[in-house]
Amino acid sequence: MMEALFQMNWFAIAAASVANFCLGGIWFVALFGKQYASSLGIADRPAQKPGPLFIIGPFICGTINIVTTAFLLQALQIHTYGGALALGVIVGIGYLVAMTVNIAINPLFPRPFYYALINSPMFLMGSLMSCVILVAMS
Fold it and tell me: How far lies 62's CA from each of 57, 58, 70, 85, in Å?
C-alpha cells in the first residue's frame, strides 16, 4: 500500500490542483457568486476583497483531496477513464458532497440545503475532473 505513495505523479497532482482551483474560482465568483452569498445569508452586504486565507485555504484543501484521490487511484490500480470517473463519483458524492451537506446543517447556515445545492455540483465536477487529469497524466 505504501508503494502507491511513491508511484503518484506529483506533476499531475499539481495540474489537477490548479484546474480544481480555477474551477472553484469560476464557480463561486463568475457563475454563482450571488447565489453563494445568498445561501450564506450575506447577499445584502457589500462585496469584500477576500484575504489570503480565503484564497490559499481552498487551494491547499483541494490539493489534499487530490493527493488522497491520487493515492486511491494508485492503490486501487485504476488506470482507465471509466475507472477514474467511477472513483470520481464515489469520492465526489461519498465524501465531498456528504461533507458539504453535513457542514451546512448547523444553526449558522441560514439556508443549508441551498448552500449544499450550490456547492455540491462544483465538488463533484472537481472530483471527476481531477480523476481524469490524474489518469490522463499517469
Answer: 8, 6, 12, 18
Domain that residue 98 falls in: 3-12+23-136
Position 122 in a domain: yes
pLDDT tens digits for 52-104?
999 999 999 999 999 999 999 999 999 999 999 999 999 999 999 999 999 99
Rounded CA separation 95/131 (Å): 14
Mind giving me the DSSP string for 31-84? Answer: ISHHHHHHHTT-TTSPP-PPPTHHHHHHHHHHHHHHHHHHHHHHHTT--SHHHH
The pTM (predicted TM-score) of the whole model is 0.93
Pairwise CA distance, residues 121 & 11, whole Å: 26
Q: Is 104 exposed, middle or buried (0-12, 13-18, 19+ CB in 10 A)?
A: buried
Tally of domains within the chain: 1
In-domain check, residue 112: yes
User: What is the mean predicted confidence (pLDDT) over 37-64?
Assistant: 92
Residue 2 has pLDDT above 90, yes or no: no
